[in-house]
Amino acid sequence: MNVYSLFEKAAQAHGPKVALRQLESGREWTFHELYEALGRVQAGLDAAGVSAQERVALLGSADARYLLCDYGVMAADRVRVPLDPSLRCDEQAAQLQDAGVRLLIHGPEHAGRALEIARAVPGLALSSQSALLDRICTPQTGRIGPGADRLASLSYTGGTTASPKAVMVTHGGLSAAVQNIIGVRDMGPGDVLLNVRPVWPIAAVVLLAHLAVGGTVLLGQRFEPAAFMEQLRSNQVAATSLVPTHLARLMDEAAPHEKSLPMLRAIDVGAAAIPVALFERLLVALGPRIGVLYGLTEAPWSCYLPPSSLAHLEGERRERRMRCVGRPLYGVEVCIRSTNGDPLAVGEEGEITLRGGHLMAGYWNRPEANRQALRDGWFHTGDLGSLDEDGYLSITGRMKELIRTGGKSVLPAEIEEVLMRHPQVDDAVAVGLPDEEWGEVVAAVVVLRPGCGSHDRAEEALIDWCRQQLSSFKKPRRIFFVDQIPRSHYGKPLRARLRDQIRL
């Protein structure tokens, strides 16, 4: 299976039905029109002299024209390289040079940045989205899509200019991920999926899966709680996807209620853990409509906790389930391993390793990184976790994020959960700071709720709060206060940036 085949089959089965709708403009594309757009993209790439398997970068917004170019590049057997619009020009240029990108397709709002990048990357050609999508071409007939082992995408996992690292995704791996998603999501023809997240990273895969079953993708604007609730209501939305910080704002600013959203079946949440207290508030307000997923750029949608999983649980069992990320999907195996690589028993904590057809093919031009990450067919995630007796996976932290203080290991998530239970705390992240005596000391970066008084008093109160609920070596020695925690597009805290910020 390949990207082209997915859209060909969708057009045959659901041709005149609406596939994409842009919320702001109201513009719609049927499955037939989407399929035809893929042909225009291929014709444009052919005319530009871009050969099969050459790399084509994309820089745009979360709109339909970006998606059409994104899917069109892959369907045409070229390798898409999606760019994070929030990166600096030198970071974007470093990724294009690393990938050997031949052509950059950009949206109108990024035309200036595209010219700036082109000046930094010798030999880079530019094309606007309109130059590809608005061209007149002969409808495609008798076309065969790329083979399963052909590269579909290079997706960069970081923005540093020192060592950009791209995940290689094949058409077979992408198709396996799509099949995994379809297998666990209760969605079908006509169901509306509202997207308010960036589409350039992994979100495009979820939208692809929804389109493959004949669902309609509604492309909204940036997340704003009140507007988001109205979009859910007025468009009969069946599913959407948010990050935990979105959920916290939704509960604080929009007061959602399950009876006002009769069509909504799932809000899928990934990237970071949902604090238990917030999860409880969501269940009271929305009922069992929160789905939790676990995946990485290297292995998208590996585990899933369906909304129905919490419907009939109570007490300690319910709380344990809220702390997990579900069971492995049909085509996925999970094994927890010790530092020596040996499989661990149920309940034991170790590194999460994954196996399945959805895994990346490796890192682009990074043989040493591949030897470390891919061993005997298993991907070593660097995440820490455990499996319970029912096969549910819990994430406890990142191996690289462990705080080593006085010879003991501290998981940041444990401290963050305690801090988030304090009524004055709106957001919190724990980090380790270098210390001559202890190696590292535990510190916390906190966002206070409005009207919480002086920072000195708050620091004393929060350290005392942690002292009551954590072992002495785990409590923060210092607490720093900021207006906002810097987070990635996935909602994950940018710990390195935080460390630099609080050292100043």
Structure characterization notes:
This protein is an alpha/beta fold. It is built from 16 helices and 26 strands. The chain has a 9-stranded mixed sheet with strand order 2-1-10-9-11-12-13-14-15. A hairpin with a 5-residue loop joins strand 20 and strand 21 (393-398). The longest helix is centred in the N-terminal third of the chain and has 17 residues, at 31-47.
Approximate strand percentage: 25-35%
CATH class of the domain at 3-182: Alpha Beta
The CATH topology of the domain at 3-182: Rossmann fold
- The total strand number stands at 26
Low-confidence stretches: none
Discrete helix count:
16
User: What overall geometry do the principal axes of the alpha carbons give?
Assistant: globular
Major β-sheet annotation: 9 strands, mixed
Ends apart, CA distance between termini: 52 Å
Strand order of the largest sheet: 2-1-10-9-11-12-13-14-15
**Helical residue percent band:** 25-40%
What's the gyration radius in Å? 23 Å
Mean pLDDT across residues: 91
What's the architecture of the domain at 3-182 in CATH terms?
Answer: 3-Layer(aba) Sandwich
Task: Give a nutshell description of this structure.
This protein is 34% helix and 27% strand. It has 504 residues and is of the alpha/beta class. It has a 9-stranded mixed sheet with strand order 2-1-10-9-11-12-13-14-15. Strands 16, 17, 19, 20 and 21 form a 5-stranded antiparallel sheet that branches. Strands 4-3-5-6 form a 4-stranded parallel sheet, with helices on both faces.
